[in-house]
Amino acid sequence: MIGERVSIVVLTFNRRDELLRSLSHLARIDESVRVVVVDNASTDGTTAAIAQYHPRVGIVRLSRNVGAAGRNAGARACTTPYIAFCDDDTWWLPESIALAADTLDRHPTLAAVTARVLVGETRREDPTNARMAASPLPNTLGVRGTELLGLLGGACMMRRDAFLAVGGYDAHLFLGGEEALLATDLMSAGWRMAYVPEAIVCHYPSGARDVAARRRLARRNALWFAWLRRPLTRALKATRDWWTQSRREANLWRNVTDALSGLPWIIPARRQVPPPVERALRTIEAFYAGGDSPRASHVEASPAELR
Questions:
Q1: What is the pTM of this model?
Q2: Potential cystine with 174: which of 67, 110, 137, 242 (Cβ 3.0-4.6 Å)?
């Protein structure tokens, strides 16, 4: 049974209606697959609605909103070797669950499979699909897709032990480009990641989101990531880039204060990546800085729509 290999973890916060729709779609997957919702302390009756309309779904209710790090609690609540992650406005197609699990079975050093994301009722291609398909990293594993240094948090299947061994998502980052640190730590630990376009996740973007705040957090997190893992020259470049972007905003000093608030935990947590990982990061940066490739800043960055 596929449920012996895979569980599904759905992250949510105050999106009851979107969550119920996604759970209805996930209910079409083999009933042996356990579905666990991690509720980031919602106040809109989410847990009661799950109990009423989807009583078979497990619930992990957190006492506060910890952002993407809520997925860590979901992973710990599962016992299967693989976990398919969703957001409350995404869901896996039934056949894609087995396909992604089979890919992980075939490649023991693969930690994460990111699916192709189709958006809305028309199932249009998310622009990140093209960026992942154009990854400049060599496909030495021979996966049916491309190798990445990255993943999409709401559209990937991960090897549970690998995810937990590197600490999952860092709660300091909350939301916004938080996958970069996780992906880099996975590669630093010897794991690989891939985009497999035959696996499909559907995404119906929620209207309940603060796009401006998420972009600000993504910029801050990119800065923090550089100081956590990159050489000094790259960290300084990231600082210049962050300053150039942040100074255009009305709340500059709020951004400065927010960025500096990371110093107490970033300094002791700084750990420069191994040279092969740094070379991979630079390969990605150089490739996407060119004019011949699909526009992107990094493969590991989430698309703006997948929020």
A1: 0.93
A2: 67
